[in-house]
Write a structure and sequence with these properties.
Shape: elongated
Low-confidence stretches: none
Largest sheet: 6 strands, antiparallel
Distance between the termini: 110 Å
Strand content: 15-25%
Length: 572
């Protein structure tokens, strides 16, 4: 109540008292007693009303305190902004988000606490909110006084300030930085899961058994070949002890491989051993196992990667061969030469088969070891929230998958070529575009600062099988980058309706005494045994060149490099 209103009320009360004083003078004794009683009752009523007012005021103060606590200690930051985005009020949670006391925030522009470049987004949304009455939710980057940048979800409504009758925007701030990190990790997890599924798909294509066991010899991974051979699905195999449930040194007839040992004195599996495999259908094929011990970065044993080949038929063949050889010793001299040639041919076949199995086991082992070790480290780095290291190992997994893909492509290409099911299909295309695409596809395998220089005299348009030429060039260019540390030179030109392509490197070269075997299947020179490869690439190239009715020649010197020359007749 204002002071003027109180003065008027008092004047009226004093006037009434004067009137009553004149009336009281004429009252009798009984009327005076009755009047006194009424006054006493009225006084008590006034005191009771005053008490109720005091209690109502006390409750109002409690509600106000509760509202203040609710506002200040809410889990979400709250700000009150005017149309110029000046902060009129702030709760303590918002102050904590910004790392600044409330007294320093009130009256400051909200844009002072957001990162550079975000002010336009803020003012655009705020202006639209004052027009529509609602501030839709949007994300914005803000600055903590000492902790740096963080992301908040901002939303609000437009209301009127009852005291000043001005329009304000009441804004809520939710820190979503951790949620953003979680979303990124979830996306990376999904990407990694897809990579794992892709790895499993490639393992399932392998013609040999692949499995991973832990330090207790329990199966953690097995490919389709292993499941098919055992006669179980993967769920029935995973988690079971590999040695106790599936390995036997004695066959179904009791014959024991007493000269083979599974474990050494440290409890680790020996690199190579043979055993019988206990299958669901009571079959017991004889297996040859190659075991790779896996160690973590502290050289602690964490498991074993195992590759197995069914050698039952090979052993039977060797046994029959031995028996047959003994019988042949009694055959007359006229057939000795013929038998020696047959045995020599059979020996070559067995050596090629052994070379294939050994090569496949070796070539798969390196990328698979890289994949498995990276997968284990990724799990550790995810727990430690070290996303940078996770990304490095994801790239390592992708590179290993590319290696496996190249190996499988070599196997499939050679098989199709030898069966004669590859046909040619000619089309018009620009050679420069084709080579540029190949260089981009192979860029992942280039060494640091290594590049390919392509030179052609004129723009070359050709009509021939583009896919086969692409396969030829991919093999030769990838070999050049693999065996060389420096740049590769590619030259192309057409002369007398013949397309000539030369690929020159300054790499390690090919030993002269081994050059005659260069296009032989599975051949690898002695100076490249430490470099990954299947030994099929140049044999495939030779087949493809013949399909295009072309020729391939090369020149090479040790430590000087190699030059491969291709020539393809073109249609007139």
């Amino acid at each position: 109540m204002s002071s003027g209103a109180e003065h008027n009320l008092r004047a009226k009360a004093e006037a009434k008292i004067r009137e009553r004083s004149q009336a009281i003078q004429n009252l009798t004794l009984e009327e005076s007693k009755s009047l006194l009683h009424e006054l006493e009752v009225h006084q008590v009523e006034l005191e009771m009303q005053n008490e109720e007012l005091r209690e109502a005021q006390h409750r109002l103060e409690e509600v106000r305190d509760q509202y203040t606590d609710l506002f200040d200690f809410a889990p979400i930051g709250y700000l009150v902004l005017n149309e110029k985005a000046i902060i009129i009020n702030s709760n303590l949670t918002a102050c904590d988000l910004l790392g600044i006391e409330r007294s320093y925030i009130i009256g400051k522009p909200f844009s002072a606490y957001i990162t550079n470049g975000e002010s336009r987004t803020l003012f655009f949304n705020l202006r639209k909110a004052f027009e529509t009455g609602i501030l839709p939710s949007f994300e914005i980057k803000m600055k903590h006084k000492s902790k740096g940048e963080f992301t908040v979800l901002l939303q609000g409504t437009i209301t009127k300030n009852k005291i000043s009758e001005s329009t304000v925007c009441r804004v809520s701030l939710i820190d979503v930085s951790e949620l953003k990190k979680a979303e990124i990790l979830q996306l990376k997890h999904k990407s990694l899961q897809k990579e794992k599924e892709k790895i499993q798909e490639y393992l399932n294509l392998a013609p040999v058994v692949f499995l991973l066991i832990d330090t207790e010899y329990n199966v953690q991974l097995i490919n389709k070949k292993g499941c098919d051979l055992l006669g179980y699905n993967s769920i029935e195999i995973l988690g079971k002890n590999w040695l106790n449930n599936f390995i036997s040194l004695a066959d179904s007839k009791g014959s024991i491989l007493s000269h083979k040992y599974i474990k050494n004195e440290n409890g680790l599996l020996n690199p190579n051993f043979e055993s019988f495999l206990k299958c669901n259908n009571n079959n017991m094929p004889l297996m040859s196992w190659t075991n790779l011990t896996l160690l973590d970065e502290n050289n602690k044993y964490i498991g074993t990667l195992i590759a197995g080949e069914d050698i039952t038929e090979r052993k039977k063949l060797e046994s029959r061969k031995q028996k047959y050889t003994e019988e042949l010793e009694g055959i007359v001299a006229e057939r000795t030469k013929e038998l020696k040639e047959a045995l020599q041919q059979e020996k070559i076949i067995n050596e090629m088969k052994s070379a294939f199995v050994s090569m496949a086991s070796h070539e798969f082992r390196t990328p698979l070891t890289s994949i498995l070790s990276s997968t284990i480290l990724i799990e550790k780095y995810n727990d430690l929230n070290e996303s940078t290291k996770v990304e490095r190992h994801v790239e390592r997994i992708k590179s290993s998958v590319n290696q496996l893909t190249n190996i499988l492509n070599d196997f499939l290409s050679m098989e199709k070529l030898e069966r004669g099911i590859v046909t040619t299909s000619k089309e018009n295309f620009t050679l420069k575009v084709l080579i540029k695409d190949i260089i981009e596809d192979l860029h992942w395998m280039f060494k640091e600062n290594q590049k390919i220089n392509y030179v052609e005299k004129d723009s070359i348009e050709v009509f021939m099988d583009k896919k086969i030429l692409r396969n030829i060039l991919i093999n030769l260019i990838s070999n050049a980058t693999k065996y060389s540390q420096t740049d590769i030179q590619i030259t192309a030109f057409i002369k007398k309706n013949v397309l000539f392509i030369e690929i020159e490197d300054r790499g390690i070269g090919i030993p002269e005494n081994e050059q005659k075997y260069l296009f032989t299947k599975f051949f690898r020179a002695k100076n490249v045994t430490n470099i990954q490869g299947t030994g099929l690439g140049l044999s495939i190239v030779k087949h493809y060149v013949n399909l295009l009715e072309g020729t391939i020649a090369f020149m090479s010197e040790i430590c000087e490099g190699s030059t491969f020359k291709l020539a393809f007749p073109l249609c007139p």
